[in-house]
Amino acid sequence: MNGVSSATGYQAPTVTVSSSLPARGLSEAVLVVGVVTGDDGPVVALAQTHVSAAATAAIESGLKALGGTGGEGQLHRLVIAELPVASVLTVGLGEPRDWPADTIRRAAGAAARSLDKVSTVVAALAAVDLEATVEGLILGAYRFTEFRSDKTAPKDKGLGKIIALAADAKAATKATAQRAVDIASSVATARDFVNTPPSHLYPAEFAKQAKALGESVGLQVEVLDDKALAKAGYGGIVGVGKGSSRLPRLVRLTHKGKGRNPKRVALVGKGITFDTGGISIKPAANMHHMTSDMGGAAAVIATVVLAAKQNLPIDVIATVPMAENMPSATAQRPGDVLTQYGGITVEVLNTDAEGRLVLADAIVRACEDNPDYLIETSTLTGAQTVALGARTPGVMGSDEFRDRVAKLSQEVGENGWAMPLPEELKDDLKSTVADLANVSASRYAGMLVAGVYLREFVAEDVQWAHIDIAAPAYNTGGPWGYTPKGGTGVPTRTMFAVLEDIARQG
Ligand code: BES
Ligand code: MN
Ligand code: ZN
């Protein structure tokens, strides 16, 4: 640890692709092999080209002797004399079938989590699905040690090298592996930001790190400080930020796609570096989870960086409001009225509904760039968790685009689910003094009411999606699959899949 953390603190392992199992140099490596359930016990999955018949038979009989069946989620370590590796780790995949990528990704993630003090992995599992295996291994091996002193820091360096066994090592296969490395590294960046405590990640510092990261991959970066925000009329960001001694920022990161008349996508992410609730203060229990209230911002920054790394032929412009929601003598009060960027006035009935205030400003600014699409994501409502649970983001917005985003989110295993924005909920946001109130008096449909609020600020002709990741951004339960405790990086892979889809078909 060195005082100020960096978003690039986590070093992803290096990945090489090989079409055969190297005969030498693996005396400390672990071979990760997929196994399926067979009529007569566990069967090694698709590793025949890489692992000899004798070694395959030894793995299968050894595993059977340990009681392994190849059932989904089972992990076993074996020593196989026929192989040039220190040991074999089998991962159960269940019945042989055409596995969804996320089954393989989770299996690889669980495998990586079970490997302590192993620096090199040879992944025969990659023969089943190269990209999912590499992503799963990197995401599962992720750890955040920035703030541990020698007293509790891990003694080893973690997973450093992955040798992925594939059918060939041609350029296209290597590009697939590199794509997986880039995606997983961006998810790790988002996780690092979320895991960095609020003492060390406050608006000015977050903006500084986002700028450095963006410039390192060739993005154009603009940062508005508190004075510039006040001058330009960003009443929502200023109102939320003014209770803190650590003043707000607005960061804009632009990736210019090469090609004629590229589609343009705006990304907006909620960057509340800590949410106490403000004067409408939250209860003490679990308030520390609010370190994750910049999870949307983290994912949006990670996604635009990934778009640049992967050279997507579209314009991607991220607009990221950053503020700390604190109670103090200078904080906004319940009942205050502020003017959002663009002119709509809002009665702040509850200072804990701060996300929509900073987002409305950012959405109006993002729409000034005339995007074709706008994706906004935020840890916006506790109601998301009530409606959908800890692992399912709620996706709202323009019907068609919302469904497209939800479908792609399912495909990448982040599992966003489409939700409606009923017209009548707008009546719940009527104010007696201003254009809008920031909360409804009713307890019904809190996630949807927040979406209805945001809809008021999206320009007419823009296809938009709002992804509520209140719980999915931050895992407060035990680790599972490739998801550790703490920051998850959700919905970075969803947004990148949408960008790639737009790059392909408009
Ligand atoms: N950041 C919270 C939402 C949240 C809650 C995220 C739990 C992650 C876990 C947000 O700013 C908030 O406080 N929302 C209020 C809105 C309410 C006042 C209308 C909520 O959900 O209680
Ligand atoms: Mn809040
Ligand atoms: Zn919040």
Automatic annotation (TrEMBL):
Originating gene: pepA
Cofactor note: Binds 2 manganese ions per subunit.
EC number, UniProt record: 3.4.11.1, 3.4.11.10
Annotated Mn(2+) 1 binding sites: 275, 352, 354
GO molecular function annotations of the record: manganese ion binding; metalloaminopeptidase activity
All residue ranges annotated as the Cytosol aminopeptidase domain in the record: 350-357
Domain of life where this protein originates: Bacteria
Residues noted as binding Mn(2+) 2 in the record, renumbered to the chain: 270, 275, 293, 354
CDD domains with a match to the protein in the record: Peptidase_M17
PROSITE patterns: CYTOSOL_AP
Native source organism of the sequence: Mycolicibacterium diernhoferi
Database matches in PANTHER family: CYTOSOL AMINOPEPTIDASE, LEUCINE AMINOPEPTIDASE-RELATED
InterPro entries linked to this entry: Leucine_aapep/pepB (IPR011356), Macro_dom-like (IPR043472), Peptidase_M17_C (IPR000819), Peptidase_M17_leu_NH2_pept (IPR023042), Peptidase_M17_N (IPR008283)
Family statement drawn from the similarity comment of this UniProt entry: Belongs to the peptidase M17 family.
GO CC field: cytoplasm
Keyword terms, alphabetized: Aminopeptidase, Cytoplasm, Hydrolase, Manganese, Metal-binding, Protease
Identification of the protein by name: Probable cytosol aminopeptidase
Family annotation (Gene3D superfamilies): Leucine Aminopeptidase, subunit E, domain 1 (3.40.220.10), Zn peptidases (3.40.630.10)
Cofactor: Mn(2+)
